[in-house]
C-alpha cells in the first residue's frame, strides 16, 4: 500500500483521497446488507433468560491512551481532532530506514499506573512485534509487550454504588494479569458511497497502556463499575484522560457462560466498547445471548463481536475459528527496557536519565478509593456521597476549598448544596467544575448568607441560577435591589402569621381537631405571601404559639 503523508486521507488501495468536511458530514446511503444483519439480530435479540443455574465469567482488556505530548516511538504530537494525516512522522508511516525511540513519559505513566494497581513491576521488560495486516497499520505489525510485559499480578479494589442509594455499596476485587505498553493503530473510515476505506494515521503510534484482567467479573454491573474506577484512577494519576467518547479509553470484553462447577464455556469477545454504560449493556446482553443459545442446545461460536449501541445488542464482526497466528517475535530495533530502584539507580551508566520505580512510587497521589474513605471519615459523610464527590473531577478540591476558607461553615450544609444545586446547574449547562461561574469563594459567600439567616434557601437557589445565567453583580447588591433579605423580626412575622390564620379558618379548625400536619399548609401560605423570605423556624414557632393559645 502506498503511503501518503499530508492533509488528506489514504485509501486502502494506496490512492490519496482528499475529502472535504462537507463530504465527511454528508448523509451516507444505507448499507442494505448491514441493515438486514442489524434487523435480524434485533428481531432475535430476545435474550430474556434467567441466570439461575448458570455461571458467567467476564474478563476485560482496557486500552488507555497515555497522556503524553508525543507518541510512543516517534516525536510526532499526540493530539485529538487534528486534521487527518497531519501528525504523521516517517516512522509512523513505516518508511524504510526509520527506527523507534522510546518515549520516557510513556514508560513513567505505565509504571505509575501499574504501581497504583499494586502490580509487580518487571525491572526488565521487552518489546515484541505482533503481526497482522490491516490498512491502518502501515508496518504490518504492532510493537507491544507480549512475552515479558511492564508489570504483572496486580489487583484493583472497588465498590459498586447503587445510584438510587437504596442499597449500601458492595465491595469487589479483580486481579490484573498484566500491564503492557504498545502502539495504537490508525483510524479507518469506511466510505460506503465510493466503496473505499480511508485511513487517518494521526493516531498510529500513540502510546497505549493495555490492562488485562483475569476473568473475575460476573456481569455487566461489575464490569462497568470496574471501568469507571479505572477511569477515575487514570485521571487521578494523570496518565490517561479517560475520555471514552474520544477513543482515549476503549474496552474489549471477553464473556463465557457455563454450568456451575463445569469448565468455562467457549468465549466471545466484544470489541471497542466506548462508554461505561455500553460496557454494562454489552456484557449483560452477551451473557443472556450465551444462555439462550445453550438452553436451545446450540453451540457458542468462538468469535469477535461489536456492540450496536443504537439497538443495545452485539453483532458479529468476524469469527476466530482456528485462532489467528500473530507470529510474535522480539522487536529487533529496541533493547530491553531496564528500570531501577533506590538500590540499583547508582549502578546505571546514566543515573539522571534512568527511571526510578521507588521515586515514582513516592509520587503517587491520593487514589479514588482512598480518597472516598478519607472523605467519609473526615467529614462524617456516607460512602455514597463521597462517591458523588470523587466521581466529578475537581469537586473534592472545590468542596475542601470552601471549608478551608472559613472553618465556621457547616460541612453538611456545604455538601448538600454542592451535590444538589451546584451539580444540577453544572449538568444543565454541560460544564465542568473548573469552568463553573460559581467559584469556590462565591459559593462560600452564598452558604454564609444562608447560614446567617440573611437569605432563605429558596433565594439561594434563585441567586445560583442567576450566577449561572451570567449575572456578575455582588450578591448583596442583587439581594438589596430585589428586597430578598430574610424576614427575621419576630413582631413582623407574628403580624403576617395572624393574617394567615384569620383567612384560613378551615385549616385552623382541622389543626385543632388533631390534624397537626395542617400547620404545613399555613407554612406554605406564609412562604407564598412573603415569596419565601420569612425565616421558617420563627414562623413555625409563631404559628404553634398562636394556634395553641386560642
Please give a handful of descriptors for the protein shown.
about 550 residues; alpha+beta; 3 domains; four-stranded antiparallel β-sheet; 17 helices; 18 strands; elongated; disordered N terminus; mitochondrion
List the helices and strands and how they pair.
Layout: E1 9-11, E2 16-17, H1 21-25, H2 32-43, E3 55-65, H3 104-116, E4 120-121, E5 124-125, E6 128-131, E7 141-144, E8 151-160, E9 170-183, E10 187-191, E11 196-200, E12 207-213, H4 220-237, E13 249-258, E14 268-273, H5 276-295, E15 303-308, E16 313-319, E17 329-330, E18 337-338, H6 357-362, H7 368-379, H8 383-391, H9 395-405, H10 411-429, H11 440-451, H12 457-468, H13 475-482, H14 490-502, H15 505-512, H16 519-529, H17 536-548
Parallel strand pairs: 14-15
Antiparallel strand pairs: 1-2, 1-11, 3-12, 3-13, 4-8, 5-18, 6-7, 6-17, 8-9, 9-12, 10-11, 13-14, 15-16
Helix pairs in contact: 4-5, 7-8, 9-11, 10-12, 11-12, 14-17, 16-17
How do you describe this structure in short?
With 550 residues, the chain is an alpha+beta fold.
